[in-house]
Design a protein that fits this description.
Elements (H helix, E strand, L loop, with lengths): L9 H23 L7 H12 L10 H11 L11
Helix pairs in contact: 1-2, 2-3
Length: 83
């Protein structure tokens, strides 16, 4: 067996990704529903602080900035507003 053969099976891989999406979604919607104001940098920092300890080797990417900007712009006024 080669080291490259050591990997999660497709079912486990899909669950890991679904779980990661759920954690991200919950953080974004929680912040969006808590009247965060319009400071995208503060929202970005809040998202990062909520996510950094939930993932191994977490590094914020441009998607986190996209969500922070959307929250600051009022695109998600409440968790029920996400679609």
């Amino acid at each position: 067996m080669n080291p490259s053969d050591i990997r999660w099976n497709d079912e486990a891989r899909a669950k890991i990704l679904d779980d990661a999406d759920r954690v991200l979604r919950e953080a974004v919607l929680d912040i969006a529903g808590s009247d965060p104001g319009t400071n995208a940098d503060a929202i970005y920092a809040d998202l990062n602080s909520r996510l950094k300890d939930r993932f191994i080797d977490y590094e914020p990417g441009p998607d986190i900035r996209t969500y922070a900007d959307a929250i600051a712009a009022g695109e998600w006024a409440s968790p029920g507003a996400a679609g």
